[in-house]
Amino acid sequence: MPGRKIIKAKNFFEEDFIESLAEVPVEKIESWGADTKLNIVGKPIPRVDGYDKVSGTAKYTFDIKLPHLTYAKILHSPLPHAKIKSIDTRQAKKAPGVLYILTHENCPPIKWWRVTFLFDPHVRNEGDEVACVVATSEKCAEDALKLIKVEYEALPFVIDPEKAMQTDAPRLYDAGNILGGGPSKYARGDVEKGFAEADFIVEDTISTQVEVHNPTEPFCSVVNWDGDQLTVWDSTQTIFGVRSSVAGALEIPESHVRVIKKYMGGGFGSKLEGGKYTVIAAIISREIGRPVKIYFNRKQMNLNAGNRPDSVQKLKAGAKKDGTLTALSHYSHAAVGAHPSGGGCSWPLRAIYKCPNVKVEEYSVMINAGRARPFRAPGHVQGTVGLESIMDELAEKAGLDPLEFRLKNYAEVDPVSNQPYTTKRLREAYLRGSAAIGWNERQNPAGSQPGPVKIGIGMATQIWWGGGGPPAYVTMKMSGDGSVEVLCGTQDIGTGTYTFMAQIAAEVLEIPMEKVTPILGDTAACPYGPTSGGSMTAPSVAPAVRDAAEQMKAKLISGAAALLEVPETELQYKNGVITSIKDAKKTIKIDNIVRRMRLGTLVTTGAREANPVGYQINSFGTQFAKVAVDTETGKVTVLKIVAAHDIGRVLNKMTLENQFHGGIIQGLGFALMEERVIDPNTGLVLTKNLHDYKVPLLLDTPEIEVIIVSDHDPLISNMGVKGIGEPAMIPTPAAITNAVYNAIGVRIKSLPITPDKVLMALQG
């Protein structure tokens, strides 16, 4: 083109050309950075998706509406254990609006949980799927369910894990009721020798209850076929996991399944896999050629959403007179429900304290009840209750302060692998947390305060992984107006992922956050991202965002070098403007760079680097609880929780505190009220709604103080961040348990700590 100069960008794209001004005019450039605050990461910035949520414009899966949408409802087993002798659907098929009915008789034999089927004529718990009706309206589907006639052969059931372990117990499967046929074991050192060397030995049995998943948003999927392509809108913590499980069940390529999720109302581990209901809806949708919506009501959630398994922990601990631990042993069994799932809870005992001799034996036992699933720090919450109770007991027997006892047995390296930690600042958390709660004011001896209402202070320690890792990819796109899209195939489950992604991109590129649009939750649009569970999301995704942004910055500098005809080493990048160090007249905004390129959009892909070899990556923390116990009524009121944690770098102070508040309230529920109750005579669940299944309310919420003792973990990633989802909850129930003991001088050894248990304990 006449009058224009075309040069090759040697440092940019080898095969692409950019258009350059023959002479860059002196521009009056108003820097974006004039109003851009650097160091955006870590600030208490409101969620970028906050307006959508509080205004009601946020679209959840339930809100998806498609042309010719149909509605699916599942018929569940009313018995805890039975075989289906016959199903008569003839009358239901004739009901108004009914389009299709799926049962084990016409469903493909799709394996589920390795040992059963999508629809299995052998139902093993109240709530197992028996049939599914799809109709033109919800009411039509619900009315048709009542017309299905099922004849069951009732079978003996077992709901007590100790009884289920006996050889004469009713069997859920031919292989028996113990998962794997036997216990999971771990040992180091010589535990018998360790107990022989102890001056003090404490033995106790601590039990925890089944805690049921009750997220605000129930399970929900909307599915639609377009030829051989299936689109699934799902409330999930793992869009790629749902894609994989649905494709596998239907025996179609994963590339033929697209999973979308923009917003979600809680999951806590219950939505870490593809659901039966999603596959059922997909099968029926393919049969009828119309989209299908399926969702659970609260009763279905309480039966089938999954749960934290219970635990019976038999613990033994030995120590020398100076408080040095010599041996720890842990035996436990847990009821994991009617389908395979793990119930181990010993990791805190193995990994928190320095102890040379440790022995573990734990059983996961199947019973005729709803299935166990990951639930915010699976195993660690119940295991920490057991360990931290026995630690307090041993400290008291040795005549030591509980905090002093823990510091005495502080592990400088990982006791399991003997490897160093990337960082560990638990000691500082102990000191700052104890000062904030007023540790010196606790009752000594326990229960010595006069009057009917007694105040107690307790503590507990937590360990979790949460270091994240690959694979996690982020695609970044910059348009000609300087706006940026950040795409990742992970999902925001309510923790603030959208927000921290925008913060990181804005900080690295030195542009306003308003210029950044995070795009998540779509397997077709986004590169692979991790499951949102196990405190993995932020430490996996954040480094990939930064990597993509740093690459974008490098490409912009390279493009500016070509446009300005200045070596890259002589350019300065500041607040979205690139300027020659030697000639201030040579300056260009980054949006102008993109506009001058024939590509139109500048694209980079960032990745999460591998974790360092030879180190253990853990988050650490401690929580202190202050409680008031009314010895006349047995009521426990939590007055204050102090949470002091080492979690690496803080990405957003506001969302971090949101996470801690939520986790602590959830832990309070586990400590004091939440419990699934099953009638031992019928095997039926008695707590199927939020009236009978108690969860914490606003009035139950104590004062909460969050203290972060860490700044970053430089070894694990370019962002140095660890996850906080699990650490926020892990130590709360244990700290409350120890605080109740400090208040009344009697240990409650079975959770939840309800008024009747307090009164019975006080009566001996």
How many whole angstroms does the radius of gyration measure?
29 Å
Query: How would you write the strand order of the largest sheet?
Result: 5-9-3-17-14-15-16
Q: Terminal Cα separation, in Å?
A: 96 Å
Helical stretch tally: 18
Q: Please name the fourth-level CATH homologous superfamily of the largest domain.
A: Aldehyde oxidase/xanthine dehydrogenase, molybdopterin binding domain
Average pLDDT level: 94
- Domain count, please report it: 3
Number of strands: 32
Percentage of residues assigned to helices: 25-40%
CATH structural fold name of the largest domain: Aldehyde Oxidoreductase, domain 4
Can you tell me the residue ranges where pLDDT is under 50 for at least 5 consecutive residues? 1-37
Structural class by SSE content: alpha+beta
